[in-house]
Design brief:
Layout: E1 16-20, E2 24-28, E3 33-38, E4 43-44, E5 47-48, H1 56-70, E6 79-81, H2 89-92, E7 101-105, E8 108-109, E9 112-119, H3 122-131, E10 133-134, E11 137-138, E12 148-154, E13 157-158, H4 170-177, H5 179-202, E14 205-216, E15 222-225, E16 234-238, H6 254-261, H7 276-294
Antiparallel strand pairs: 1-2, 2-3, 3-7, 4-5, 6-7, 8-14, 9-12, 9-13, 9-14, 10-11, 14-15, 14-16
Length: about 300
Amino acid sequence: MSAVKTVSQTNVAGLSLIHRGKVRDVYQVNEKQLLLVATDRISAFDCVMPNPIPHKGAVLTALSAFWFDRLQHLTEHHLITAEFEKMPDIVRQTEYLRGRSMLVKKTRVFPVECVVRGYLEGSGWKDYQKTGEICGHRLPAGLRQCEKLPEPIFTPATKAQSGHDENINEIEFSKIVGAEVAAKLRLLSLEIYREASEYALTRGIIIADTKFEFGLAENGDILLIDEVLTPDSSRFWSIETYAPGKSQLSFDKQYVREYLETLDWNKQPPAPALPTEIIEATTLRYLEAHRILTEKNYNN
């Protein structure tokens, strides 16, 4: 794979950086608008890896824009534009932001992750093995790893600023955001997941689980925000190779997690460097997810 210029950190002249997350740098554009910049950073086990993943930020941005457009009949969202030419002049002065930036409406973010699971994997699989439940949902006995659930379940989590997000039940979820908002977020999350997963199946991809974020707009509307149905926020599996009872071939960052599990590393910073072959294979998975879901080849 030829060398590609990556972006690990941004500094945009004239804009105030208000948050640097594990992947995104967030800038204040004006009182009502933010600029979300997806870098090529990748995190695993809540640690940012020292190596960036080529094309990653652009793939996350393109896929999110695709889903915001496709799902807008279900929910309003915060995206104003992801087209660089339509950005404010102050943004367009920094060329490396092209393709990896979203101009969005500023919202009051609900401090929760709205997770929907259609299959049994990850922390849900671990919880099920211990208790037979996930976030208060009692599941049938005898389910295998990665098995399809009888129906998708809503399993919220706290939105940790640092450290691990923690799974919570819907009673705790309601206490955080209020009963009325909790009911709306649950319904929206399940509706979005069902529609997106049905579409993805027609393209040969299983969306095993995903997480959404929502915010409250100035006028009181609930908006879908941040990234949507990307390889960072979802588990994407191939229908062709899917077989319950084991880990699956994935088009997401699970590939990096599985590599890290083979190391003698305590999952605390500093994170180990990723070998070239792991970086390149991860890039190919992200590009393939974009190609399959959007039916378009990614063009840098």
